[in-house]
Design brief:
Layout: H1 3-16, H2 22-28, H3 40-86, H4 96-105, H5 113-129, H6 134-137, H7 142-168
Helix pairs in contact: 2-3, 3-4, 3-7, 4-7, 5-7
Length: about 170
């Protein structure tokens, strides 16, 4: 079955609670944003922006770092379970990797219109282009491969973003 065919079954499988528990589906799809009919990664990244702002304003850089680590660790497990239940590699429904990647992108970055827009664009461009070593990390098995490439893209985006913002200051 194609990825598109599986995607149409994902909500039905998630609602039924099997073969993966519903909470795992909600985590992996970031509250269902991964079920968007197209550009699910972009939709999830947009949905992460207000969460990033909330986390930053609640606890600053330490809270953003905690959210990046938590979404990565939980994402590895949830993404692996959903991938196994859908029976194909790196399903587009799984977008918790975009959440983690965007949090990594925005680490040690003061939120503002320019920084958030630039962070979003950089992260999405890198996630699509998959530069090395992200392209290599994507080949890791299960949840590791799903998460690692986006975290690496987040690191690269973060370095570019912070460098660019420091040059503008």
């Amino acid at each position: 079955m194609s990825a598109a065919g599986n995607k149409s079954r994902a909500p039905e499988v998630a609602r039924s609670g099997g073969p993966a528990p519903a909470i795992t589906w909600w985590v992996a799809t970031f509250l269902g944003t991964g079920l968007a009919p197209f550009a699910s990664g972009t939709v999830a990244t947009i949905a992460t922006l207000p969460l990033y702002l909330l986390v930053f304003w609640a606890g600053g850089d330490i809270a953003v770092a905690g959210a990046a680590v938590l979404s990565t660790v939980v994402g590895i497990a949830a993404a692996g379970v959903v991938e196994r239940s859908l029976k194909y590699h790196d399903p587009s429904e799984v977008v918790i990797d975009e959440v983690a990647g965007f949090f990594v992108t925005m680490l040690w970055v003061e939120p503002g219109v320019v920084s958030c827009a630039a962070g979003f664009l950089l992260f999405r461009a890198l996630d699509v282009l998959k530069p090395w070593p992200a392209s290599r990390a994507e080949k890791l098995p299960g949840g590791w491969g799903i998460m690692a490439d986006d975290v690496i893209c987040g690191i690269i985006a973060n370095v570019i973003l912070r460098t660019g913002l420091s040059l503008l200051a």
